[in-house]
């Protein structure tokens, strides 16, 4: 049978007198993870937006190129 390391919740929160250091380390770790996840989500969204812009630009260029070939006749040759 396992014995708990702390006899009560207040003893757990006090961490044997090292609560400040322990909870500061826990907070720093959790804050780092939250920032990492947020930064990853923002970068992912920016990448998807950049891909959409690039695809839209390519489509506009293709559409513009097809208009040029259909509206401007080729030059006539003198024979």
From TrEMBL:
<dbReference type="GO" id="GO:0017004">
    <property type="term" value="P:cytochrome complex assembly"/>
</dbReference>
<keyword id="KW-1003">Cell membrane</keyword>
<keyword id="KW-1133">Transmembrane helix</keyword>
<dbReference type="GO" id="GO:0005886">
    <property type="term" value="C:plasma membrane"/>
</dbReference>
<dbReference type="InterPro" id="IPR052075">
    <property type="entry name" value="Heme_exporter_D"/>
</dbReference>
<dbReference type="InterPro" id="IPR007078">
    <property type="entry name" value="Haem_export_protD_CcmD"/>
</dbReference>
<keyword id="KW-0812">Transmembrane</keyword>
<feature type="transmembrane region" description="Helical">
    <location>
        <begin position="20"/>
        <end position="43"/>
    </location>
</feature>
<keyword id="KW-0813">Transport</keyword>
<keyword id="KW-0997">Cell inner membrane</keyword>
<keyword id="KW-0201">Cytochrome c-type biogenesis</keyword>
<dbReference type="GO" id="GO:0015886">
    <property type="term" value="P:heme transport"/>
</dbReference>
<dbReference type="Pfam" id="PF04995">
    <property type="entry name" value="CcmD"/>
</dbReference>
<comment type="similarity">
    <text>Belongs to the CcmD/CycX/HelD family.</text>
</comment>
<comment type="function">
    <text>Required for the export of heme to the periplasm for the biogenesis of c-type cytochromes.</text>
</comment>
<protein>
    <recommendedName>
        <fullName>Heme exporter protein D</fullName>
    </recommendedName>
</protein>
<dbReference type="GO" id="GO:1903607">
    <property type="term" value="P:cytochrome c biosynthetic process"/>
</dbReference>
<keyword id="KW-0472">Membrane</keyword>
